[in-house]
Amino acid sequence: MKNTITLATAAALMLTTAMTSAQAADLRVSWWGGDARHAATQQALEVCGDIHGHNISPEFTGFDGHLERLTTQLAGRTSPDLMQVNWPWLPLFSPDGTGLADLNEFSDIIDLSQWDQALLDTGMRNGALNGLPVSITGRVLFYNADTYAEAGVEPPATWDDMIAAAETFKSELGDSYFPFSASRYNAMLLVSLYATQQTGVGFIDPETNEVNWDQATLAEAINFYQSLVDAGAIKSWETDAAMGNPGLHERGDWAAGEIGSSYEWDTTVSQIAGPWGEDHPLIPVMPPRVEGAVSDGIFRKPSMMFAISASSPNQEAAAEILNCLMLEEEGVRIMESHRGIPAAASAVALLEQEGLIDANVKAANDLVLAADTPPASPYFEDPAVRTAFEGVLEEYAYGLLSAEDAAAEIIRGTEQALRRVQ
Amino acid sequence: MGGEKQWVGLAYVAPYVIGLLVFTAIPFGASFYLSFTDYPLLSAPIWVGLQNYIELIFHDRTFHRALQVTMTYVFITVPLKLTFALAIAYVLNYKLKFIGFFRTAYYVPSILGGSVAIAVLWRYIFADIGLVNMIITGLGFEAINFFGDPRYALFTITLLRVWQFGSAMVIFLAALQSIPAHVYEAAAIDGANKAQTFFFITLPLITPVIFFNLILQMVEAFQEFNGPFIITDGTGAPLRSTYLVPLYIYDKAFRQFDMGYASAIAWILFAIIMVLTLIAFWSSRHWVYYAGDKRS
Q1: What is the mean pLDDT of residues B154-181?
Q2: Which segment of the chain is annotated as a signal peptide (chain A) (predicted)?
Q3: Which of A243, A251, A309, A422 to mutate to test the interface with B (most CBs of B within 10 A)?
């Protein structure tokens, strides 16, 4: 009898454990990033796998080509169980909320109360929580303190200051010096920044998914881009392209300090500071404002998300690993701020308490969080929208279109792209 | 052959046949079907009939531009590459010291040529402060904006393709070596100089190989992707002056997830290659000479 009771108790315990914890599973986890993120995530996955008894295969790449790879995997129903996705990809992967698992169903495993509801809403598609935000990111101005000091110029507070700085740069440092840099995607973001500062709304309304700006507003912003080129504040599109379009940190003029500042993601400071190493001269500040600006206008968005595949047979196990990476002390300590300052309250508290947050990233992220800027639409970075915007802006920069025609063409192309992706 | 032996034979060819079906024939047929659909990759294809083709042929300015760039690229690259390959093969056909080494050395670019690393290297060589501009400015000329000026951008990717002349060169070299020595001896006795020997003996005798290389290089040039994709970050910049049709197919398929439209572009490209190949075959009756040919 005694044996029977012991067996029954053991069986009940096993059953309880099975109900609250997923069975040992073979999981695939994918992400993109640089070497530091790769090393930290692999280590964290090893630790989290040991804690929860799952065998994890990591799959990691750089950012280029990751969208194409993941989309093909999702289409072939061979996507990893747990994956890092970019926020603008959610509408592509899950237009109606069923393309990825609904994380609300795992709220007994993942403590969702650690996120602000507004932030959680950015991962919702049609009522389903498809992506859990890892952090919030945004663009700020990183200026080269050494170059500006050499020119005897303060970091510009207004765009007029930036234009004035261009003249001083040329006279004090030489014709090869520019106080700012914006070409290709950064030129598109510059135009967007200017128009958002003027209007207080982003290019695409996140509620209605319609273009917010009229032709005149966009034309004025495009003309503003050209005014910076004409004043020598930035290189022309054509001159900039002569370098062969390398990344900012790979550019000779950036490394030589000839470029005074650039409008970059807050989390990229360690990458763009590459030429100088740890003792770099880059300082994050809020970008200059246009006179009469109604907002700071910076581009702010959830930087990336973790999502669970809708076709995964091990969704609970994936949820356990997700929780471990983002909320459990062992995972959070190893992941540090390799994906930006964590959005989960308990994670950021732990990292701050233990001094594990990169001071550079924190300084830039504080600016992003404090900025007065309208919510962005995930469609702003949709490949078709980007092609419509950037391609036409290039034609304008080469003098093939007037600002008015370019504005009309961008709006027309964007509306067409939005109709298709929706 | 019958019975068991027949099955053994079939077993031997089965891997190839299965591979051909799974990786070539079925995708080939599927893409033809998909070209008549709206297929956003992550949801089921919807039949749209000829809509993709009508849009492409009559309305799509980007496609027209890409096609124009591709045609220019092919018509510059193929003759240039064949001429270059033949010239090098001709030199390497001489009995020189260390000729084996030179033949290997000239073939190396073909092995490396299409690789990602070489395309990246190309980007640095032709950059504003790259090797080529250092030489140009060193000679007292103004630097050329190879990547920013639409007049020169296509030149860089053309040169990248021409640089990969090794495989065509090896085929030419084999053809040159197959020409019997007595033909040249007869020409020499008749008093033919080197230019006459080349144009009236060598060239006519290797026309089948020129024709083979022409078709091969033309088909490959129409499918060029790696070089321009890496050098321009896939944008075909500046102003789409290097935007070849395969880049547009990739953009539509994997960046905009419009698989149906991308398939339609691929089939139009296939049709163009097919027509040009048929024209080449038709024209070959007038300039290609085979052994035993009545005209020979």
Answers
A1: 90
A2: 1-24
A3: A243
- Measured CA to CA, the distance from residue B53 to residue B36 in angstroms comes to 8
Residues present in chain A in total: 422
Average pLDDT over residues A55-63: 94
Q: How would residue A12 be classed by pLDDT, with cut points 50, 70 and 90? A: very low
Chain A neighbors of B150, CB-CB under 8 A: 398
Three-class SS state of A360: helix
pLDDT at A406: 97
ipTM of the complex: 0.81
Q: Which of A75, A242, A246 is closest, CB to CB, to B42?
A: A75
Which among A238, A91, A182 is positioned nearest to B152, based on CA atoms? A238
In angstroms, rounded to a whole number, what is the distance separating the alpha carbons of residues B215 and A366?
Answer: 61
Residue pointed to by tokens 């309305």? B59
Considering Cα of B142, then A254, then A223, then A191, what sign does the dihedral take?
A: positive
Q: Output the average pLDDT for chain A.
A: 91
For residue A187, how many other CB atoms are within 10 A of its CB? Answer: 25
A333 C-beta neighbours (distance < 10 Å), count: 16
Question: Environment class of residue A190 by beta-carbon count within 10 Å: exposed (0-12), middle (13-18) or buried (19+)?
Answer: buried
Return phi, psi of residue A60, to 5°.
Answer: -135, 150
Looking at domain B60-287, its CATH superfamily turns out to be MetI-like (1.10.3720.10)
Four-point Cα dihedral B274, B280, B281, B285, nearest 10: 160
DSSP B123-134: HHHTSTTSHHHH
Rounded distance, CA A121 to CA B23, Å?
A: 42
User: Which tokens in the block code for residue A142?
Assistant: 């990183």
Cα torsion B81, B83, B89, B91: sign: negative
| pLDDT higher than threshold 80 for residue A195 | yes
What does each C-alpha distance from A74 to A31, A78, A100, B32 come to in angstroms? Answer: 14, 6, 9, 22
Q: SS3 of A299, please? A: coil
Distance CA B88, CA B166 (A): 9
Per 3-state DSSP, what percentage of chain B is helix, strand, and coil (rounded to 5)? 70, 0, 25
Give the span between the Cα atoms of A29 and A15, in whole angstroms.
28
Q: Return the number of other C-beta atoms located less than 10 Å from residue B243's C-beta.
A: 28
Give B-chain residues touching A242 at CB under 8 angstroms.
127-128, 143, 145-148
- Phi, psi at A143, each rounded to 5°: -110, 150
* The two structure tokens encoding residue A127: 């009522």
Query: Can you point out the beta strands (E) in A212-296?
Result: 261-265, 282-285
Which amino acid is residue A173, in one-letter code? Answer: L
Domains of chain A and any CATH numbers: 23-137+301-370 (3.40.190.10), 138-300+374-421 (3.40.190.10)
Q: Which residue in A71, A245, A394 is closest to B233 by CB distance?
A: A245
Query: How close does chain A come to B211, measured CA to CA in Å?
Result: 36
Helices (H), A65-158: 66-75, 90-93, 117-121, 145-151
